[in-house]
Structure formats: C-alpha cells, structure tokens
Amino acid sequence: MLRSSNFRRARLFALLTLMAAIVPMYNCGCEEEPIATVTLRVSLDPDPLNFGKYSLNRTLTKTFAIVNDTQGIDLEITNIAMSEGSDPAFKLAGPTSVKVGPQSRKDISVQFTPTVKKSHTGLIVITPKDKVKFRVRGEGDGGFQEIDTGRIELRIFGEGTDLPIAKLQIKDNLTAIDFGDVPVNTSKNGTAVMQSVGIGPLTISSVEFDAKAKAAGVFAVVSPAGGVVTMDPGTEKDLTISCTPKETTVYSGQVIIKSDDAQNPARSLTLLCVGVTANLIFSPQLLEFGNVNAGQTKTLDVEVSNTGGAAIQVTDLLIENNNPEFTFNSPRGKAFTFAPTGSPDSKATIAVTYSPKDAIPDRDHLVFKTSAGDFRLPLIGGSPPRLVITPEGLLFSVPAGKSGAQEVTITNGGFSDLVITTADFDTKFGTPQFFKVVNSPAGKTIKPGDEVKFSVEFTNNPSVEGELAQLNIGHNDPDNQNPFPFQMGSKDDVADLPPTAKIVAKEGDTIRSALPATVTLDGKGSTDDKGPIASYLWEVIVKPDPGAKPVFSDPTAAETTLTFDRHGVYRVRLTVTDSLGQAGPPAVIRLSVNPAN
Fold first, then answer.
1. d(Cα 537, Cα 193) in Å, to the nearest integer?
2. Contact indicator for 488, 585 with CB cutoff of 8 Å
3. Per residue in 90-141, pLDDT tens?
4. 47, 64 Cβ separation under 8 angstroms
5. In what order do the strands lie in the sheet with 517-522?
C-alpha cells in the first residue's frame, strides 16, 4: 500500500509538470507579435487648382500645397510633372521633387498663359517614394475619404479671355467733384465712387493733384489713406477729397487716379471749389407761384441761409418794385443778423404771399439789403404770355431784280394774352429798304394757343450782295427780349452767300437743375455755301433779370457750354462768319432754366 501510494504521487507530479510546460505554449500563440507601423497620409490644398478667367497672352502664377498630415514621418515626393495631354497653357514652375516634414506643407508653383479664348484643362501627377493614403473630398457629407495610392493627381482649370483684368470705372460716369460754395477756412468733402469692374484685383497706386490744384493749396486726399488701395472685382471704394478755401475766390484743378488698369492707367476728375465769406442762399432759388386767379392768394416759404463764415447784418427787407400783389412775413422782422453757418441763427424762413388783382402776370424780387450787399429772390406770379416765332429767321433766294415773299407765324405759347405792339425794321441794321412787311402783326392781341401770320417781301437788288434786315417786334412777353430781333437775309445766285447759323442744345431747351446749371450748345451744324465757317460768336441777348451772370466756357468755339447762376428764361444768339468776313442771319434759341424739383 505504501509503495502503491508513492507511485501514484510520482505520476501526478509528472503530469502536472507536463501541463505546466504545455500551457505557456498555447498562451504565446506560438508566433512572434508583429511590430506597429505608421501610414503616410497626404492631401492637396487646393484640390482642384482653378485659375478662373485670365487675359490672353499674360501669365498668372498660382500655387498649391502638398500637405503631410502624418506625425513623425517625412514625406518624400520623387517627381512632380504635367501629365501627357495637359493643355500647353499650363506650365509647372517647380519644384519637381520635395521632402515634406511631418505635419508640414510645401508650395508648388504653376503658371497659366492662355493664348486663345477657351476653357483649358490639365493634370499634374505627383509620385511619392512610398505608397500613401491620399485624402480627397467626399461627396455629399463634405468630409474626407482615404484611398491607398502610389500616384496623386491634381486637376487644373483655366479660361482665356480678352476682358481686362484690372479695370477702373467712376460710378455714374462722374467727371467732376463740385464742392459748391465753401466758407473760407472751413473744410468740405466731395466724393466720387471708384468701381473695380474687371475680372481681377484693381490696385490704385496713387491719387495726385495736377499743377493747378497743387498751386491752389486747398485740396487734400481724405481717402483712400495714402492714395493706395487694392479692390477686388465688383467692389467699390470712395475717393474723398476735401477743399479748404483760403479766400473768396474760385479754386479749380484736377485729381489724377493712377492704377494698374492697362487700358486707362490715369483717370482725372475736375475739381471746382468756391471760397465764400458772408453769403446768403435761397432754397428754393426762386418763388414761382404759377397760375393764381385774381382775388385768390397763394403762400410759399423760402429758407434763407448764411453759408459763409462771417455774420451778415440785414438792414432792410423789402419788395423791390413795391408790387402790391406780393407781401411777406418775416418772423425776425426787417432788420436782424444772420449768424455764421452752422449756428442756429444762420437761417430764417420767410413766407411770401401772392394776391393777384387781375390776370396780368406779375414779377418782382424780395430784396435783402445787408452788410455784404443786396441779395435778390425772384418772385413770379400769374401765367405770362410766351412769344414763339417760326421760322426763327428768313433767307430769301430770289433772282436779281425779282421779288419774293415768305410767311412768318407768331404763336402765343403762354397762358394769358400776347400783345404785339410794334413790328418795325431796324434802320441801322443791314439794308431794310429791300424788305417789306405785309399784313403787319403790330397792334394785334393773340389769345393763348392762337397765332397770327404776316409776310415779308424781298426785292433782290442786282447791285447789292447779301441784303440783310432786322424786324424789331415789340410785345408783352416778360421772358423775351423786347423788342425781339427777327432777322432775315438773301441768297444771291452769283455772289458768295453769307453763312447760316444753327444751334442745338444737347440737353434740350428746358433744363431742370440746381445752380449752377450748365447746357452744351452746339453750333457745328452751321453751314456756308462756299466753304467752312471761319468764326463763331455766342451771346446771351435775354436774361431773367439784370443781375444774372451766365458764362460761356468759350464764346468763340463751335461748341461751348453755358453756365447759369440764376433760374429763369434766357435767349442765346449765335452769329457765324465765313472766310470772306460775311456774317449771316444769327440763330436764336430760347432756354428755360428751372429748379430741379
């Protein structure tokens, strides 16, 4: 029993020893555990590379980045090249191989030089030394997918166009910055809006003044700061200039905007600034009551402001010609002081009442007598008649020794009776003895919208060349020259004829504008039968009142501008002379300058 027991214990010990040896073999898996590895992760920025539209035969360089998104391992790119079949407008500018550190990026330059108007495509092939996981944008969720690859591809696009890259435009085609009246030693800003209308960025490199503006010493650039700014396509920037007049005079010049607009690298705007001290302005600039029936009344307000830097003492306030149809109410009385501009007492509102007693049109002025001179506000009441004569002049073509006649029509274009008082030839003008009025309109009354006709007979004297005459027509139209000079001439068969004047007002004969108002007058349609016009002479022959001072930019040019400082009706005459010194019958145009509102 003892032996048997010992034997069993020996066998059990051996079995346990064997199992202890076997169990670890199963626990180790019988194989060596693999070592962990890191996968290179690569992305491109941007992907794809889009050059957009670019001008023909010019080169645009852009870059894309190879991004190593891996931690702790370098990315080695052995080759970067354009693929076969890529558009030749694209060129790889380099480098062609790079090493990108962990969590780093390297920029690669690509050039686009379109030579034809079309869309261009290309493909850049990037070969890494080792196989990588390449990140591409997923579709739908905006996230990323990862694909194993040994070749990375970047698509590139561009379009050739003949549109300018950088282009500057001034909004509303503004050609001038007019500061108007500016009190001496105070500043006023004027603004023009610059627009970038090209397909690429626009760089304003400088804003400068010409020699005249620099010499004035009153203009300064407020913005853009330093005169330099870059504008993206479709954007706007304010060009703000200030004027600080030093004395009471007119300052002018030009501001020059320089940019990389290849078609127009230097644009200029005219600057106009008037320095004032004590000055009264009216708003509105005239009181026009329109048609008010007799026995009724109408009241209009006018705001009077001192725009100067000095006070103005009003010594009296009155109706100039004591017309009883016009009365006024001044809350500050007839003698008071306008404080300098900006002060509460720099303005006053005056109420003017029109009370017509009959149908006769009324005109007068509200006059401010002040320490700075007289300031006059036109007052217009009723509906005056309007003298309209057609044609505007007569030109006869009659054989020598023969007679001919032409008809003239006088129309009343107004709203009350037009009275023609006289119709006589001017004995000091031309050769009136060869002209005769038949059925004279003198003494006739023309109702609104009606007309009268008369004739002028001409007898061609063979011994006189270029007969001329002027018929002076008296009338009661307050807006027309009185008497009105109606001129006529003759066209001889054998002699050189005098030229014929013609006027065209480009903005029309009715102008609605704040003051100063400007109209362009074109006399280039004037003709002469034997050659060109030798000289032009523009004259204002009718003004709304004696104080009006209309100014021609050039009274001897074929085309000129006329600037008005007061509203009302004007008559402008053009006389042209041919190469022999002959002046033909002048052309006359009626211009009505009205407030903007």
1. 38
2. yes
3. 999 989 999 999 999 999 999 999 999 999 999 999 999 888 888 765 444 4
4. yes
5. 504-505, 517-522, 559-564, 551-552
